Amino acid sequence: MAITVRTLPRPIEESSYVRAMLKGMALTFKHLVNPHKVTWQYPEEKWDLSPRWRGTHRMLTDETGKAKCVACGLCPQVCPANCIKLVPGEDEQGNRYPLVYEIDEFRCIFCGYCQEVCPEEAIHVGRHYENAEYSRAGFVYDLPRLMAQTHPVSELWDPADPKGE
Amino acid sequence: MKVAAALLLLQQFHDPQAPVSGLAWLVFTIVKMLVAFTILMVGVAMLTLAERKVSAWIQDRYGPNRVGPSGLLQPAADGLKNIMKEETYPAGAYLPLFILAPVLAFIPALTTFSVIPVGAPLPTRWGYIPLVIADVPIGFLFILAFTSIGVYGIVLAGWASNNKYALLGGLRSSAQMISYEIAMGMSTVAVLLLAGNVSLSAIVKQQQMMGWNCLPLMIGLFIFLVAGFAETNRLPFDLPEAESELIAGYHTEYSAMKFSMFFIAEYSNMVTASALMVTLFFGGWDIPGTQWDNIPPWTVWKSLATMAFFFGKVVFFLFLFMWIRWTLPRFRYDQLMSLGWRFMLPLAIGYVTIMAAAILVLEKLGVPRGVQFLGMSPYWLALGGLNLVLAALVFVILDRGRILSPAYSRISARQLAALRAMSVASPIAPAEEG
After folding, report:
1. Tens-place pLDDT, residues B349-369
2. Which residues constitute the domain of residue A95?
3. Which of A130, B128, B294, B396 could form a disulfide with B208 if both were Cys (CB 3.0 to 4.6 A apart)?
């Protein structure tokens, strides 16, 4: 039983190595002298982020510099990745505030539900992505760190303008 | 008598148009060696960067551009890294040969450069210095002999590593070098016939007088170019280190500086092959279109200008090496062997025969070699015309699947038809019978 090999019907008379080689070298030379470079020189050049880019979280503050959060508990409730830790507290006037507010950026899937659900517009996802740490623990952002972020926050989807124009 | 001899010696010392001799010769030879070694090492370092840059540009990338201004210090960083790295010795490796192999690859690669003349003689107050480290009378044979030693480094590296991929790489390399060395030697016989000498200086001199060999020995140049690629193990002939099949071939088990030495050897071989191509076929250090650079009195400016031209030509061929590397895919092993033995070798032998006959006829007819006709030599034109015709024959008529053939072309047409019929018909016929 012979082994069945599929052979391409390409006549020897039509095949040429030298011509094909010269053609290939012309092509590479064209790229050499006139390259269309698409590489971004990353640390110097950066991509423009979409206004709805969902990145590192940010906690907004009121005029007095306190976090806007009222510890209602909606964001940990809605979080699908279960990455928000919230321990509510109450001051003398009976205002609720977060005693502990931590987001584990490493577990977060950046769905942005926390921002959508927040009644006080306190927690936001932001237009920022460069977060690197030396340990996993460094990715757990506590309240002061969330408040210290300065990057622009992401815009919510507007049903009246679905394409963002 | 002694005083007269001393006076004569002194007079010689002050004649810048006589070759340098005696102690001054020794000193200048050592200086030339040091300078050539330094230039080669720095050049090789820059070549590694150039290779990466050229590959990047061809592939629409930037290439290394982080270390130093536009990546110029990258070779220094690479060298430093290789010096600092740990030397590893694989278990079961035969250490004496394992250590000797990089040296054996490294030294011939550097030595071969010593017989190549790089410029017009440089005048000094002690006499003029020929710009070649050793103008040995057997120049070209010396190069052939020493490049053959280079293959020992590769084979021994493959064998001493105790690694099957390294061994395969070494074996492939030896087979490849042996196959292509014959064609390489044959292709240059025509050059030697034309010059009537194997000394590289004589070959350069003949080209200065008659015109470059690149046209009158065009097919020789083509064979030499292809064989040169095979000898230096560069793509499309880098079978010894074919990554996709052999990991890294013969230097799979090498690390740190020992790997670096193989690397330097490869690039030095490239430089030597380019320099040899320039010397044998592109006039060496000759400046085209003028006789100013070829005749005494020698001046410093002549030396500098001819050296600049020589290095310019070498750089062009180095670029050609890179350009081809980043264009062509690697050959299959059987294609490599069949190209070497079934195409290059017969072509080279046939070419030598034809050129020897043509040179004999031209000599008998007494065709003048010197430049006479529109700034060109009739001898040169006649040989060039013959070569153009031969080149047309080779590339237009022969290059139809014969220079490089697909695997099935070696089956006869009838058998091929039978095979095709069998693959179209049911391949499981016996099962149907049962």
Report:
1. 988 998 888 888 888 887 777
2. 55-148
3. B294
- All residues of chain B having their beta carbon less than 8 Å from the beta carbon of residue A24 are 327-328
- Whether B401 sits inside 8 A of A15 (CB atoms) is yes
d(CA B395, CA B205): 31
Residue B160 forms part of a structural domain? yes
CB A41 to CB B59 under 8 A?
A: no
Across A6-54, where does the E strand assignment appear?
none
CB contact under 8 A, B401 and A38: no
Which token pair is B23? 């102690």
Shortest CB distance from B408 goes to which of A7, A13, A16?
A7
DSSP state letters, B339-367: IIIIIIHHHHHHHHHHHHHHHHHHHHHT-
Is there a contact between B148 and B37 (Cβ–Cβ < 8 Å)?
no
Domain range spanning residue B140? Answer: 79-288+298-401
Look up residue B276 and give its two tokens: 């040899």
Q: Is residue A6 part of a domain?
A: no
Q: Quick one: which of B180, B184, B195, B190 has its CA closest to B224?
A: B184
Q: Is residue B235 part of a domain?
A: yes
Residue (of B210, B224, B252) closest to B90 by Cα position: B252
> Which conformational region is residue B92 in: left (phi greater than 0), alpha (psi within -120 to 50 degrees), or beta?
left
Q: Are B409 and A12 within 8 A, CB to CB?
A: yes
CA angle B271, B277, B283 (to 5 degrees): 120
pLDDT tens-digit map of B47-57: 989 999 888 88
Q: Does the residue A12 lie in any domain?
A: no
How far is residue A144's CA from residue B229's CA, in Å, rounded to a whole number? 65
What distance, in Å, lies between the first and last C-alpha atoms of chain B?
Answer: 110
Residues in A whose CB is inside 8 Å of some CB of B read 1-2, 4-8, 10, 12-19, 21, 24-25, 27-29, 31-32, 35-39, 41
pLDDT digit string, tens, across residues B124-175: 777 777 778 887 888 888 888 888 888 888 888 888 888 888 888 888 888 8
Please give the pLDDT value at position B434: 39
Q: Which of B107, B249, B77, B263 is nearest to B174 (CA)?
A: B249
| A158 located within any domain | no
ipTM metric: 0.71
Any idea what the CATH number is for the domain that residue A59 is in? 3.30.70.3270
Structural domains of chain B, count: 1
Is the overall model pTM greater than 0.80, yes or no?
no
Q: Do B422 and A41 touch (CB under 8 A)?
A: no
How many domains does chain A contain in total?
Answer: 1
- CA-CA distances (angstroms) from residue A164 to A110, A113, A116? 20, 19, 17
Domain presence at residue B24: no
Average pLDDT along chain A: 85
